[in-house]
Design a protein that fits this description.
206 residues; alpha/beta
Length: 206
């Protein structure tokens, strides 16, 4: 059994929601990333929610069939049967090309839609590194060596941060490109905050 005295355990998400990054900051001294958890479907592990002209849009990374609830997340493979990377790239460009800071981050973001990753876990981990650098957050973490369903001394965010659950923290408003048309959409992907607030994003999160 893992014996951390404090801190929190997190999954890895695809361009995670704002709540996730806020929780990382809250627990920045002791973070454990679960590499061995069983892969649950219909979660942020392979989807990100962005603000399009027509409202909330979910971008989903397809995984190879056979990846089920008993598959360790480290073994889940990304499917490249169709060009989802082009679809995601175009969706992000269409949604955010008029935002204040999209062009500032675009060059660093585009490789995630050009290079082909084999494993979802590796893809999400490199995305997390990109986001921490873009947000100028000095956060480090350790990675689990085995699966444990229960960590009594830690806050567990593996199931609590979920597309079907309201965020457990209060999220302040900030300017969104299509807010006038669709209203403010809370807890979207951290990309929405980054493209609209740029270097001010970390202040919003803290």
């Amino acid at each position: 059994m893992y014996t951390m005295e404090k801190g929190a355990i997190f999954p890895l998400f695809y361009h995670p929601p704002i709540e996730y990054v806020s929780r990382l900051i809250q627990h920045k001294d002791t973070i454990l990333i679960d590499k061995h958890e069983h892969f649950p479907k219909q979660t942020f592990r392979n989807r990100a929610s962005v603000h399009s002209a027509n409202g909330k849009l979910d971008l989903i990374v397809p995984v190879i069939k056979g990846s089920n609830v008993h598959t360790p997340v480290k073994d889940v493979r990304i499917s490249h049967e169709f060009n989802w990377q082009r679809e995601h790239r175009m969706s992000l460009q269409t949604a955010y090309r008029s935002s204040a800071y999209f062009e500032f981050y675009e060059d660093d973001l585009m490789p995630f839609y050009e290079r082909k990753w084999t494993f979802l876990y590796d893809y999400n981990e490199e995305i997390l590194q990109f986001l921490l650098k873009a947000l100028k957050l000095n956060i480090s973490y350790t990675v689990s060596s085995e699966y444990n369903s229960f960590y009594p001394a830690m806050d567990d965010y593996r199931e609590s941060i979920h597309p079907k659950k309201a965020p457990s923290i209060e999220l302040k408003r900030y300017f969104q490109v299509f807010e006038e048309k669709n209203g403010f959409l809370p807890n979207l992907s951290i990309l929405d905050l980054l493209f609209n607030q740029g270097p001010q994003s970390s202040k919003y999160l803290i």
